[in-house]
Amino acid sequence: MTKPSRILLAIDGTQGSYRAARHAALIANLTGAEVILLHCADPHPSLSLPFSTDGTRTADATGGMPQSFGYAPPSPHERVGPARDILQDHQVRYMEHTVEGPAAETILGMAQREHCDLIVMGRHGTGTDDEPDVGRTAEHVVRAAPCTVMVAA
């Protein structure tokens, strides 16, 4: 891999994506790369959050606390906040985008349009960290990306 000049950081509000933000910040500091902070907003967030068998949302999707059906999902601004803080703490230059649409296609399209050299993302979306291997979005991005992909565990 050559020294990246543009890093696409895909954030979904999970702890895995915040770990990815820390990796992206470190790489950007070492290389001087600019980071494109991308949040793919789900047009129907209440339908995509995972539920347990008792009707509560799973812990990872709600920041660690099971929630009842009355729970309002965090806004895109709230989901991106911790990643934004990580980049600012590391004094990394970044641009921020929130785009509505399917995550994998949105990430791939943004990477191509912005001529990114590296995509950094978590291995799972709103599923649980207990799942093995990588999630569907990460797998799709790894297989179809126009550049190197780093999946943070």
Automatic annotation (TrEMBL):
Domain UspA: residue ranges: 6-151
InterPro entries, sorted: Rossmann-like_a/b/a_fold (IPR014729), Universal_stress_UspA (IPR006015), UspA (IPR006016)
One Pfam family it belongs to: Usp
Domain of life (superkingdom): Bacteria
Membership in a protein family: Belongs to the universal stress protein A family.
Name of the protein this chain belongs to: UspA domain protein
Origin species: Nitratidesulfovibrio vulgaris (strain DSM 19637 / Miyazaki F)
Lineage of origin: Bacteria, Pseudomonadati, Thermodesulfobacteriota, Desulfovibrionia, Desulfovibrionales
